[in-house]
Design a protein that fits this description.
Layout lengths: L4 E6 L3 H13 L3 E7 L3 H11 L6 E2 L2 H6 L5 E4 L6 H10 L4 E4 L6 H12 L5 E4 L6 H10 L6 E11 L10 H4 L7 H4 L1 H12 L2 E9 L10 E8 L4 E10 L5 E8 L2 E6 L8 E6 L10 E4 L5 H15 L9 H19 L5 E2 L4
Parallel strand pairs: 1-2, 1-4, 2-3, 4-5, 5-6, 7-10
Antiparallel strand pairs: 7-11, 8-9, 8-15, 9-10, 11-12, 12-13, 13-14
Helix pairs in contact: 4-5, 5-11, 9-11
InterPro entries: Gfo/Idh/MocA-like_OxRdtase_C, Gfo/Idh/MocA-like_OxRdtase_N, NAD(P)-bd_dom_sf
Protein name: NAD(P)-binding protein
Pfam family, one: GFO_IDH_MocA_C
Amino acid sequence: MSSQLKLAVVGTGIFATDTHLPTFQKSPNLKPVAAYNRTKSKAETFATKAGIPENKVYDSLEDAFKDPEVDFVDALLPVQFNLDAVKLAIENKKPICFEKPIAANLSQAKEIVQLSEKTDLPILVLENWAYLKAIQVLKEEVIPQLGEIVAFTYNATGPWNDNNKYLATGWRQKPEHIGGFLSDGGVHQLALLTEILGNVKSVSGLTKQLREESGTDDILFSTFNLNSGVIGTFTYGSAFGATDKSTSFTIFGKNGSATYDWSPSLSKPKIVYQTGTSGQNKSEKRTIEIDEVNTFEQEFENFAEAIEKKDKKLIKVPPTKAFHHLAIVAAALESSSKGGSNVNVELP
């Protein structure tokens, strides 16, 4: 980048303080200059840590967007307010990035997509898993060796965490957004899946709520049919009793298979694959350990490049992609309400 971008942080809670601010502080090209939070004292605390002057801690969301010094807005609001933030961004000609899921429901999400298509402003949904290095390794180095891809199994399951610092967040305990934790965390999983294998056409799923604290259903067992004709299973939930946290994604081809495993028990994420047309005609297993990138840094680098070049096509996760991820969750919930019957994923 050739110049420093100045930004406003709106929504200055735990994630803004613990993740976004350290990311900005590592970059000489990004400088927080304004802040807003519904509870002003939280914005003031954040501003002190970020080196933002007192007169740049705003009393309203609108004032933060109107600040002429601000080049873009980083929004970490309860998702039901994402649509309002996007409208303010377009009204004030400010590029905006905002936290996932894209919106509280598909109606709001669809409106965000429509607004984004009518503006040249870069608009990024912060689904950082789309920037995982493992995606590139799988797509470029491994999958081409597996022949026609026909199926997959995706498993991301784990125990309930009593010490989850986000449990006290009111908008998560009493979610206004569809899916609660299923969409809040599930869109990460779906970003990874769809970046590698493509979009999902239909879902047959069953959900349950295991924890009252989740506010709504918190586990999903399902089967997916992708637009490409690939079929597979998708299992997600971190509300179980004592069990090992397991995150793995196996891809089956006519000429081999690959498993990407990023379980916490591993020292590094790894891809294990083998090629061959049968159990008798197969290669030795090969392992690639992934030196993973900082995906938060990657997404802000991506956003900054799009802003500087004034090219929204550079955005890795535009609203259209993020809509699809939430629409998959919506289809799974609808399927579960119908006893697991097949439901098509809605288009924006």
